[in-house]
Design brief:
Enzyme class: oxidoreductase
Shape: globular
EC number: 1.13.11.5
Helix content: under 10%
Keywords: Oxidoreductase
Protein name: Homogentisate 1,2-dioxygenase
Organism: Streptomyces citrinus
Distance between the termini: 64 Å
Length: about 450
């Protein structure tokens, strides 16, 4: 834990709005006026474009930012391979997709001196990172800041969901702070370093190989609701002018590559564009739900979506079950029993989830469950019995914060997840004892 990191995090300022054309400069006059790449960029800086989409994609989908930096990104030595640690990448070919319902306890404590990158642990995923399709589920557990090294992911963008302990993210665009109840989104290719705001940090990561996350269309909901664009916060420009050795780790086509720069690559003095990192407070999610009867489909809780080539079918959705009121009449209020063409990985940030039993051996913060496509799931027996007999008065659900990575393809486990000691071997037992009540 660093007092300096805490002080820095508390004093951060942000820009507001998801997908906006933001502009920021740490030094007045660093942004050129009227053009992106003048013959001589202001203040002796180098102009560089970072493209998160193809040049020719429609304007509404195009992601790019112009960076004005002390040294261009091209000024670096050769990258060499390093060990991937516990990070795995699609295609996942070392095991077969498993139709069984699976659940894990939280990751075990890391060894002393484990930073965020070293503490990344892959559960599984789908698609093919080299084809820019699919996703991966990772978890992390760290007890040390990333010192003298930064990380970037050429394979996809990273949605970081802290569960325990806060993070200070130093990116090329500036600084973000994210703690439990918030999420941070790091675009493809953006370099960043993770520092800790507490003694240790634990959480989840969705690595999205496909189309960048966007806000879902609202359809009949109208113009407002779910995650409001104004609540996403982008960093203001902040740079490091530091001539010391810095290790740069690049994830490329599933492998880690490293090069030692003679300067910090987080040296962007000014920038403008829409390919930027964000932080979002999940407690600001405007929950939409029934005010008559029946439990709505969980798609109504979508925060961000990565669209596919099929309208309405997401490569991956990020869904949050935020505090809300339940008022449905003659309604079984927890999520109903169902089988789904989508695959669902669910995690818990705090408290308890209204369809699962908490406590030891149950669904606990830092743990997670996987229900692959068409696997039957729903409330466990204890929850079913309680909800079936509950008095249907207005009920406030505010004692937990759960989320889901929902994806169009089955999630194939990495072997380390299939054999993990913290895999709950008796998960199926939570549905044992659901009795026959049929009366002809």
């Amino acid at each position: 834990m660093s007092g300096d990191a805490h002080k820095t995090a508390e004093g951060l300022a942000y820009l507001s709005g998801f997908g906006n054309e933001h502009a920021s400069e740490a030094v007045p006059g660093a942004l050129p006026e009227g053009r992106n790449s003048p013959q001589r960029a202001p203040l002796g800086l180098y102009a560089e474009q970072l493209s998160g989409s193809a040049f020719t994609e429609p304007r509404a989908h195009n992601r790019r930012s112009w960076l004005y930096r002390i040294r261009p990104s091209a000024a670096h030595p050769r990258f060499t391979r390093v060990d991937n640690g516990a990070i795995r990448t699609a295609p996942f070919t070392e095991s077969v997709p498993d139709p069984n319902r699976l659940r894990w306890d939280p990751l075990p404590d890391p060894a002393p001196g484990t930073d965020w990158l070293a503490g990344l642990w892959t559960l599984g995923g789908n698609g093919d990172a080299t084809q820019r399709s699919g996703m991966a589920v990772h978890l992390y557990h760290a007890n040390s800041p990333m010192r003298d090294r930064v990380f970037s992911d050429a394979d996809g963008e990273l949605l970081i969901v802290p569960e325990h302990g806060g993070l200070l993210l130093r990116t090329e665009f500036g600084l973000l702070a994210a703690g439990p109840g918030e999420v941070a989104l790091i675009p493809r290719g953006v370099r960043f370093r993770v520092e800790l705001l507490d003694e240790s940090a634990r959480g989840y990561v969705c690595e999205n190989y496909g189309a960048p996350f966007q806000l879902p269309d609202l359809g009949p909901i109208g113009a407002n609701g779910l995650a409001n664009a104004r609540d996403f916060r982008a960093p203001v420009a902040s740079y490091e002018d530091d001539d010391r050795p810095v290790e740069v780790v690049n994830k490329f086509c599933g492998n880690l590559w490293t090069a030692t720069y003679d300067h910090s690559p987080l040296d962007v003095v000014a920038w403008h564009g829409n390919h930027v990192p964000y932080v979002y407070d999940l407690r600001r999610f405007n929950v939409i739900g029934t005010i008559s009867y029946d439990h709505p489909d969980p798609s109504i809780f979508t925060v961000l979506t990565s669209p596919s080539d099929t309208p309405g079918l997401a490569g991956v959705d990020f869904v949050v079950f935020a505090p809300r009121w339940l008022v449905g009449e003659d309604t079984f209020r927890p999520p109903y029993f169902h089988r789904n063409v989508m695959s669902e990985y669910m995690g818990l940030v705090e408290g308890a989830y209204d369809a699962k039993t908490a406590g030891k051996g149950g669904f606990v913060p830092g743990g997670g469950s996987l229900h692959n496509m068409m696997s039957a799931h729903g409330p466990d027996r204890e929850t079913f019995d309680r909800a079936s007999a509950a008095e249907l008065k207005p009920q406030r659900v505010d004692d937990g914060l759960a989320f889901m990575f929902e994806t169009r393809w089955p999630v194939t486990l990495a072997p380390q997840a299939a054999a993990a000691e913290h895999l709950q071997r008796g998960y199926d037992e939570v549905w044992r004892g659901l009795e026959r009540h049929f009366r002809s």
